[in-house]
């Protein structure tokens, strides 16, 4: 089998880390991107496939462009891009929301995803193959109190994915938006800025999705035959209202 390369942003924890393990178990080469280099190094040590580590803040456009230009030749043909890096912060009701939190979410969830996509896409269209998986959220289509800016960033991801698919028609490149519901990762700890008790309370009464559930779905989507494009997939815990 031809060895393919997968670039995963936000690979230092949660969905991204689980995706790295999923693809590694199937022999894919990996490019792992996130800010926490030590996490990526530890993960790479555990994986039995070629791994290129890319310490990267996706909000920094110049850094993204430089990092992607610097990918070594043996990893340079990215077959699958999992645009997964993202976060929710605060999620206060709009009148009390912290403008800095809003800005970080926009910069990471929207701009970071755009920087990555714009840089990787031309190689895919030139090779006439590739798959971009964008990690959206049910928050992109289901309003809830405090979901204001976070939900809107994920609505952007969902609609950008649809429009992107139009733009790559005829090139063989596929685009998928995955919209998970509540999943037990470091997401809540980040949202509550390290307050573990509040983070744990998020999952009370619901068996949340696991990172592995989402990795399984992400992997499955990308291993469909080349003529099959799964456009949008919403996945929620059975008990999530
Ligand atoms: P985690 O907090 O476990 O993982 C988030 C990842 O994003 C980390 O690896 C983090 O790495 C990375 N990241 C955050 N900011 C940046 C940045 N500026 N530059 C590069 N990497 C960054 O959460 P999840 O795995 O749950 O989240 C993954 C995606 O799934 C996110 O887009 C999230 O919005 C989405 N999602 C999560 C849900 C959930 O309930 N968990 C539900 C629906 C969607 P580092 O800090 O090392 O940079």
SS summary, helix count: 8
> What is the multimeric organization of the chains shown?
single chain
Biggest β-sheet strands, sense, barrel = 7 strands, parallel
Overall structural domain count = 1
User: What small molecules accompany the polymer chains?
Assistant: NADPH dihydro-nicotinamide-adenine-dinucleotide phosphate
Q: What's the overall average pLDDT, rounded?
A: 97
Structural class: alpha/beta
Pfam family, one: adh_short
Protein name: NADP-dependent 3-hydroxy acid dehydrogenase YdfG
Keywords: Oxidoreductase
GO molecular function, one term: oxidoreductase activity, acting on the CH-OH group of donors, NAD or NADP as acceptor
What does it look like?
- The structure is a single chain.
- This protein is an alpha/beta fold and 241 residues long.
- The chain has helices at residues 14-25, 37-46, 61-69, 99-127, 148-167, 187-191, 196-201, 211-222; strands at 5-9, 29-34, 51-55, 80-83, 130-135, 173-180, 183-184, 209-210, 232-235.
- The strands form two sheets. A seven-stranded parallel beta sheet has the order 3-2-1-4-5-6-9, sandwiched between helices.
- Helix 4 links the parallel strand 4 (80-83) and strand 5.
- The longest helix has 29 residues, at 99-127.
- The protein is globular.
- Residues 9-16, 34-36, 39, 56-59, 84-87, 108, 112, 135, 137, 180, 182-183, 185-187, 190, 211 line the site of NADPH dihydro-nicotinamide-adenine-dinucleotide phosphate (NDP).
Outline:
This is NADP-dependent 3-hydroxy acid dehydrogenase YdfG. The protein has 241 residues and is of the alpha/beta class.
């Amino acid at each position: 089998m031809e060895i393919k390369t997968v670039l995963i942003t936000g690979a230092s924890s949660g969905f991204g880390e689980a995706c790295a393990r999923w693809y590694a178990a199937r022999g894919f080469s990996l490019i792992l991107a996130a800010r926490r280099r030590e996490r990526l190094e530890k993960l790479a040590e555990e994986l039995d496939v070629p791994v290129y580590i890319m310490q990267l803040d996706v909000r920094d456009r110049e850094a993204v462009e430089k990092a992607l230009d610097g990918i070594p030749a043996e990893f340079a043909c990215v077959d699958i891009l999992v645009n997964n890096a993202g976060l929710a912060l605060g999620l206060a009701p709009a009148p009390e929301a912290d403008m800095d939190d809003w800005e970080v979410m926009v910069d990471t969830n929207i701009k970071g995803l755009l920087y990555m996509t714009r840089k990787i896409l031309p190689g895919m269209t030139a090779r006439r193959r590739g798959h971009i998986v964008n990690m959206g959220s049910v928050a992109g289509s289901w309003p809830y109190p405090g979901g204001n800016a976070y939900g809107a960033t994920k609505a952007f991801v969902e609609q950008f994915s649809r429009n992107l698919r139009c733009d790559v028609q005829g090139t063989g490149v596929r685009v998928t938006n995955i919209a998970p519901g509540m999943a037990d990762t470091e997401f809540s700890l980040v949202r509550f800025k390290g307050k573990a008790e509040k983070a744990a309370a998020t999952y009370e009464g619901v068996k949340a999705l696991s990172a592995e559930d989402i990795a399984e779905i992400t992997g499955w989507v990308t291993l469909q035959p080349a003529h099959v494009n799964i456009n949008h997939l919403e996945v929620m815990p059975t008990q999530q209202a």
